[in-house]
Design brief:
The complex is a heterodimer. By secondary structure, chain A is mainly β. Chain A has no helices and eleven strands. Chain B is globular.
């Protein structure tokens, strides 16, 4: 079953605004990854943050990780209509976990950016 | 190839029919993963291979589902006696080594069982 819970389930903003999506998970992780999925397409890897990192940036993306709260957030700054997609967090688990070796995905946040 | 290739892109099967879904991973990627994605949901893990070895098949929903990767490259997911609840998008992903390196996904096969 899925590990992560994402919040909000859906988000609608105007172009130029920032979008923030949150992800929570249950058991200790090795790293956490964010993916984007355009309608009818496969998932595209956006960014990976390791358990010993607290923040990471890639272009207009900023990811934070709080392992004490078992949560992560993805911030997209200055959003564009082309950012419209579903965003998923995925957790990679420590050896010894029943989830070792595979990514466990959350339910996703659907982002709509209006021009 | 440059990316992960899946075929067919779309498949309509009559209930009870057997289907085979193919995945061509990125050349040199050791790990290959299959996921099932229902409409509006996140991908659910089915099984994964490291080279030709199937290391985890805990996500396969029933014994009607079978996956293989005999030479450590191309993989096939077979579903026998398809049922309506099997309707979903089946995603294949490959990774250079393991899940800690991030996945490259194919575009998926949309299976509709009628």
């Amino acid at each position: 079953s899925q590990q992560g819970e994402e919040d909000p389930q859906a988000l609608s903003i105007q172009e130029g605004e920032n979008a923030t999506m949150n992800c929570s998970y249950k058991t200790s992780i090795n790293n956490l990854q964010w993916y984007r999925q355009n309608s009818g397409r496969g998932l595209v890897h956006l960014i990976l943050i390791r358990s010993n990192e607290r923040e990471k940036h890639s272009g207009r993306l900023r990811v934070t990780l709080d392992t004490s709260k078992k949560s992560s957030s993805l911030l997209i700054t200055a959003s564009r209509a082309a950012d419209t997609a579903s965003y998923f967090c995925a957790t990679d688990h420590l050896p010894g976990s029943s989830n070792t070796g595979k990514l466990i995905f959350g339910q996703g946040t659907t982002l709509q950016v209006k021009p | 190839g440059a990316g992960v290739s899946q075929s067919p892109r779309y498949k309509v099967a009559k209930r009870g029919q057997d289907v085979a879904l193919r995945c061509d991973p990125i050349s040199g990627h050791v790990s290959l993963f299959w996921y099932q994605q229902a409409l509006g949901q996140g991908p659910e893990f089915l099984t994964y291979f490291q080279n030709e070895a199937q290391l985890d098949k805990s996500g396969l929903p029933s014994d009607r589902f079978f996956a293989e990767r005999p030479e450590g490259s191309v993989s096939t997911l077979k579903i026998q006696r398809t049922q309506q609840e099997d309707s979903a998008v089946y995603l294949c992903a490959s990774s250079f080594r393991d899940s800690s390196y991030g996945y490259t996904f194919g575009s998926g096969t949309r299976l509709t069982v009628v």
